[in-house]
Amino acid sequence: MKPSLRHSLLAEALGTAVLLAFGTGAAVVNEQTHALGHGGVAAAFGLVVLVLIQSLGAVSGAHVNPAVTVAFWAAGRFPGARVLPYVGAQLVGALAGSGLVKLLATEGSTLGATLPAHGPGQAFGIELALTFWLMLVILRVTAGAKEEGLLAGLAIAATVGLEALVAGPLTGASMNPARSLAPALVSGHLAYAWLYVVAPLAGALLAVAFDRLLQLKPSLDTRSTP
């Protein structure tokens, strides 16, 4: 049975809340205790993405990311009528997750907000590149029969963890407008919020265009092989 829109939106809201609770929650815990380290925070993001894909993928696709939803629509793999409801559910879930994180954060915490380390120009380019590669991986490993396989989930989660590990100190490695907007709104760090909306969307759409270039076309040579 195909999940209804109501079930899908509930899954997207819940999934994005859990992403923020465990992902940015790990950043806040490390901020307070230094027990996890940067690698631990990156691992937390990768692990929670894997859990969400495996648990909610069959209900909503486990997008938990407006850039992913828009890119799937642009690729012709998601109905346009569901884009805005999905994005709305993701933003509501992200705000709920950041609200939970705020309960355990100390005064003045950024709540895991993503901020450029060396200026907005560099951060924009990095976030665009990170989201491009993440979305390209998603498109390639979820094609056809592989859409809900464990290996697809592992590949996507590994990509998130790897990119967070390498680029986290430079930009926060967001790749997700909802993941960045929610802590920015709740903590009041809004100066660079635009960057973490525009760059991931641009990177995801670029991945759609590149994915089309990688798609194999049937050979025009119909002669039988001797």
Automatic annotation (TrEMBL):
GO cellular component: membrane
Membrane topology annotation: Multi-pass membrane protein
SUPFAM superfamilies in alphabetical order: Aquaporin-like (SSF81338)
Transmembrane regions: 41-62, 83-104, 124-143, 150-171, 191-210
Cross-referenced Pfam families: MIP
Assigned keywords, A-Z: Membrane, Transmembrane, Transmembrane helix, Transport
Subcellular location as annotated: Membrane
Annotated GO MF terms: channel activity
Top-level division of the source organism's lineage: Bacteria
Principal place of residence: membrane
PANTHER family noted in UniProt: AQUAPORIN NIP1-1-RELATED, AQUAPORIN NIP2-1
Family: Belongs to the MIP/aquaporin (TC 1.A.8) family.
Protein name, entry field: Aquaporin
